[in-house]
Inverse folding.
């Protein structure tokens, strides 16, 4: 095999032309994160001896205020395994290990922890993740198939009746296109997640960049011109990904805004020819999770997967590795 060269870029202007693939490892997402406060992107690119790209992977460092010392939580999130050249002679696990090791070494003393999630295969990179002292936490993922049967064929008559009733009452979901709708979207999203410390909500700049792109949409659900639900959906490799959502479920309980916004976004994805609707986060991996059970009502498939974590503080990482041992 030829010698491989690994390079880490922190500025998008320095990036060469990249392989086309996942949006979550794209130049576009790197540029959006680069221009957003409290986020810093790290793009790992692997070249062969002739200078041809073999693969690349994006890690996003996030800076979050915290109410306990040191009052700033810095962590890195890697969404998926990256993008690979289909004609490469190298195995994907080997290349994934090269990129992961380089990024881990680069960020080891700069972040509190690194999280690797949304891998396409549960066992992908298992060996190299273990070798780099990551530990797995059992997680659940949900996706809805949109290419074989219509969404209406996968839900119960009771849920369909509820959806029809809410639509008849005047609930309507539209793509955010005005400053007024964007302001309402941002306000609801932040208010909904204010007591959910696990959920990182980027600055408005990030969502504005997404709204301007061709790889994502912001949605709002209105009732009498009042925004009562919202969602963020991105599109990658033929699939739609529900990334963020928020709703005024208690105030408008009888109108079921949570159901309507998820349903309408899913219908939009189906009508536009996307193969699957994938939910980026369905809550913590507890045995009983109300939000996960809510998402499953739409006829999705539940799948066991891993989320991998590595803390830079060694004794904490060893303790958590022992707690989550298999």
């Amino acid at each position: 095999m030829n010698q491989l060269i690994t390079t880490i870029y922190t500025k998008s202007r320095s990036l060469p032309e990249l392989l086309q693939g996942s949006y979550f490892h794209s130049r576009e997402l790197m540029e959006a994160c680069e221009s957003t406060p409290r986020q810093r992107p790290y793009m790992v690119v692997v070249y062969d001896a002739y200078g041809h790209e073999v693969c690349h992977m994006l890690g996003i460092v996030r800076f979050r205020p915290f109410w306990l010392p040191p009052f700033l939580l810095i962590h890195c999130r890697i969404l998926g395994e990256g993008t690979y050249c289909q004609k490469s002679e190298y195995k994907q696990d080997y290349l994934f290990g090269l990129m992961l090791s380089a990024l881990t070494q680069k960020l080891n003393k700069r972040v509190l922890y690194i999280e690797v999630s949304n891998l396409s295969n549960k066992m992908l990179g298992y060996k190299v993740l273990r070798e780099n002292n990551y530990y797995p936490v059992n997680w659940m993922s949900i996706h809805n198939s949109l290419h074989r049967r219509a969404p209406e064929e996968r839900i119960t008559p009771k849920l369909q009746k509820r959806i029809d009733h809410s639509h008849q009452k005047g609930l309507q979901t539209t793509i955010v296109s005005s400053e007024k709708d964007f302001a309402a979207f941002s306000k609801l999203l932040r208010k909904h997640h204010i007591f959910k410390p696990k959920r990182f909500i980027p600055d408005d700049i990030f969502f504005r960049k997404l709204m301007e792109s061709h790889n994502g949409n912001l949605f709002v659900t209105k009732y009498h011109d009042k925004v009562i639900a919202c969602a963020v959906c991105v599109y990658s490799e033929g699939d739609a990904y529900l990334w963020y959502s928020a709703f005024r479920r208690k105030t408008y309980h009888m109108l079921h805004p949570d159901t309507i916004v998820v349903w309408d976004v899913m219908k939009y994805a189906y009508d536009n020819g996307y193969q699957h609707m994938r939910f980026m986060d369905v809550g913590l991996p507890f045995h009983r999770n109300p939000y996960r059970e809510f998402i499953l009502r739409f006829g999705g498939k539940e799948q066991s997967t891993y989320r991998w974590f590595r803390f830079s503080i060694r004794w904490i990482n060893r303790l958590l590795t022992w707690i989550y041992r298999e």
Summary: The mean pLDDT is 93. The chain is about 30% helix and 30% strand.
